[in-house]
Amino acid sequence: MEPAQGNWGLLLRSRVVLTFFGVAKVIAIANQKGGVGKTTTAINLAASVAANDLRVLLIDLDPQGNSTTGLGVPKGEGRPTSYHVITGQVSAKDAVVATECEGLQLLPADKNLVAANIDLVDRDSRESCLRTVIQELRSDYDFIFIDCPPALDLLTLNALVAADSVLIPIQCEFFALEGISQLIDTIELIRTSFSHDLKIQGILLTMFDDRTVLARQVAEDLKDFFGDEVLKTVIPRSIRLAEAPSYGKPILLYDPRSKGAESYIRLAKEILENEQQQRQSAPSFG
Q: Is this prediction's pTM over 0.85?
């Protein structure tokens, strides 16, 4: 990715050198509530992590295909998508496409993906289809992000079973906590039913407007409820962030001088630093 000139100094200072273990960290970005900045986060976090000279794959697992459009990849041109991959029709490596951002590749999606919820129902280990796919890709990337649909359906379940951790964007609005308990319950169910130690990567406050009392109060309530799981980085409400997908660009390419670009650079730094700390504290064998 061409360096974002307006934030080049911040980007340089934000670089985190990871000890790479040879397999990708897989992070699902999920919230069954729509309009919380999930896809905006998927696109811009993936691009910001890739800007740290890391190999990144973004899997679009939402039938709306907004991550695909938001990275400038046309839909409906007969190319294989995440639908064909998760249903076993083609290999993931044959469906992955390059993006304008150096280091960032995409497994695209389109409306056909909605059929996966039906096609997978009668399969054995239907909740683990994506995990099987990702096992073939882990050695090719440093990070794999999954943009989940705004529903707790079979696609989201596949993403959570495949992921090492889940990042939960929450909009700072009155009903911010509504429905989150259901997602947390699903995470707990996956931990017990699949013996899968799915971790919470963090709670990300999005569309934050510090000029309003409500936004500040909701942020405090979320911090009281989730504690240290709330990330320090906050994503501001931004017209430029909302505009960027219509041009098929992440904010680092669309408006590198914007507050939105700065916020996602800081988010990438926070997540990479947290990952580095976890890797350094992990037990060493041999």
A: yes
